Amino acid sequence: MNKKLQTHKTTCDAIAKLFYPNVEVVLHDTNEEKLVHISNAFSKREVGDKMLNDVKDIKSLKSDIVGPYEKVNLDGKKLKTVSSIIRDEDNEVIGIMCINFDINTFENIFHSLKNFLNIENSEEKPNLLFTQDWKSHTNTIINNYLKTNNKNLKNLKIKEKKELILYLNSEGIFSIRNVISYLCDILNISRATIYKWLKEK
């Protein structure tokens, strides 16, 4: 990890501690293109994971602060996120800090007030680059499938996992790079199993 990012780890921890348990803070090294620190992790991401966004796209941004924009976590929870670009003394991009706020509790309160007061909800359109988060997109499709079929991800049996994989295939998920490794992790199955099921369809 770039030594110049070390001081930002404390900042990540401080923000996460202040807003605990609703905020997760993730620090990326753009040179290594990896996650190098995470505070109050609830998104199942870990140190060493590859960045979800292309560094070239990040460097092309006109502003060093992006957001807030909405993402969907694996468990279906909505996150409100702000990303901050980190630069060195030569103004070169060396990292990015992402602050993920779990807004579900507040959203439930808002909807209750909205129904009571009949307030219309006007939301800002999210930044296009960061909404193209393939994990968030995959999580949304998985959660919609589970809700429709009244199933729980943790309790899926082998047959049900196969049905989910085939459904994801019909949704075009497997055209996304790295998605198979992600599915292997969250479903606790092997790549060979996924390929076998796709071949049997």
UniProtKB/TrEMBL annotation:
Top-rank lineage group of the source organism: Bacteria
All residue ranges annotated as the YheO-like domain in the record: 5-109
Residues in coiled coil: none
Domain called Transcriptional regulator DauR-like HTH: residue spans: 139-199
Protein name as catalogued: PAS domain-containing transcriptional regulator, YheO family
A biological process term (GO) from this entry: protein transport
Matches recorded under InterPro entries: DauR-like (IPR039446), DauR-like_HTH (IPR039445), YheO (IPR013559)
